[in-house]
């Protein structure tokens, strides 16, 4: 096992997938540019060149359709959008990709991967900061993953590329996650379509998506004691895959702890946090010792100003405050 | 042209016409209320283009897909069964009349969201080129689809990447009830496509199947050399946008215009030619065979089982292999 950053683990997944299967190709806006999508496609471009790492026009919806067609014809395309925001342009073709299998009575498969990035930086504002995972998870037929560690970003990208359905992988490019180092196996492996129990505990179940895992670990990692001496043993679960949602680990945890907090990088309204709370209420509502809570983006667009932004994204302080309210 | 080829073209048009007349009958007798989008009046485009294609060529169609499906050799039994919502349909009853496909025949998919199938055909052309497969991608679209962003994204990309693709635009002047001149600056589409570096040809009367077939031969041979090509085929939908009736009562188009195009019927046109060549007996024989085939297909569909209740929940995702 070697230690590498989240960013480099993702890069390795793309290169190894192309080595493993000649039907895999990468394409997107600027994939052959100087920075190579933050370095992601540089080794692949160096090794396979412009015939399999293809720079494209700025046509997100069209590109998504091109991927569908290539996938129907036997390829395993990986379409890269530099920002999640740009995927709002792809809804038509994403809905086609989602339902192609069903509308053909199961005869068609669309093995395509959409890889994109959630950004978080002051000054970027409404249309360079979106976290649209719940939008895509809404469509029956699309799988959606949000890797939150180096080992998972590699395994989830590989799982996506070699899956026979359209899969959206949303990396988080905020520095604490993108530059985070961890052990990553050298070989090709696939992360299972299940949540990951990151930290066991008995007092409260905290389910996180993407970078919210780091906030939860910061707030509730076992090495931390709370200021007033209150020991909180939080069970932290990284959701990893919004779709397919395998809730068993979460349900078992809630039955044990009786408390549920969900922390998500998206908006609260009709978001994945709402879905998790609903599933837990339906399956383990009798076990709740207190009302379940969500920490998400407020239902407002993302402001540009640093002054406003500090209360926009979930952070460890919000998590500690909420958990204390739930446990007191 | 050889008599056999002419008879083949006649057979293709007659088959589509007779299938859609049968659908009209099924609709009017209440056996189905499926939202059928009939191609009556436009058949020569499908049959003429398909006459220029090879079995390995892949087509993508749209909501008005019956003609393309039949002309490419799609299974007629599975078509009727699909429209009637049966388990034996080409999509197991989950796709319906607007989503016909037959992989074995090379009809890859029909997409009912206007324009959304166009980039899929481009993607098929990308794959054909990358894999070095012979064959071209052919996509059928209407004049309304030209107003979609993905149309221009698609022709741009096909041109930049020099893809083996043929775009066939059936310009029937109306998007549902809106005339093209309320939607576009000109009735002529090809001249706006040409500057993208695409070979274009406008067929003023695409109800002349010989003209369609000859243009398709020329344009598909360009596509085979990775020179993307675009055919604008001017034709006319005789029936309502969806459903089986004529719609002169709605007033969005003049009765004179409809009558003029009915007079210029693709089936009548080729029949007249064949009769003049003394092939009337052969025509009768072809028609008899097709009617038999249709009756068998309808009876197959009517006698097929409905999908099981469980089918509602299957085919959403791939089977999980642990």
Strand content of chain A: 15-25%
Taking the alpha carbons of the first and last residues of chain A, their distance comes to 42 Å
Radius of gyration of chain B: 19 Å
Strands of the widest sheet of chain B, in order across it, are: 2-1-3-4-8-7
Regions with little confidence, pLDDT below 50 for 5+ residues of chain B: none
As a percent range, the share of strand residues of chain B is 5-15%
Give the helices and strands of chain B as they follow along the chain.
HHEHHEHEHEEEHEHEHHH
Quote the average pLDDT of chain B. Answer: 96
Helix content of chain A: 25-40%
CATH-level-2 architecture of the largest domain in chain A: 3-Layer(aba) Sandwich
Description:
The complex is a heterodimer of chains A (328) and B (322). With 328 residues, chain A is an alpha/beta fold. In chain A, α1 runs parallel beside α2, α1 runs parallel beside α6 and α3 packs parallel to α4. Helix content of chain A is 36%, strand content 20%. With 322 residues, chain B is an alpha/beta fold. Chain B is built from 11 helices and 8 strands. In chain B, the strands form 2 sheets. Chain B has a 6-stranded parallel beta sheet, with helices on both faces. Chain B has a two-stranded antiparallel sheet with strand order 5-6. The termini of chain B are far apart. The chains are: A alpha/beta (328), B alpha/beta (322). Chains A and B meet through α3 and α4 of A and α5 and α6 of B.
Short description:
Chain A has 328 residues and is of the alpha/beta class.
Descriptors:
heterodimer; A: 328 residues; alpha/beta; Rossmann fold; 2 domains; 7-stranded mixed beta sheet; 5-stranded mixed beta sheet; 12 helices; 20% strand; globular; B: 322 residues; two-stranded antiparallel sheet
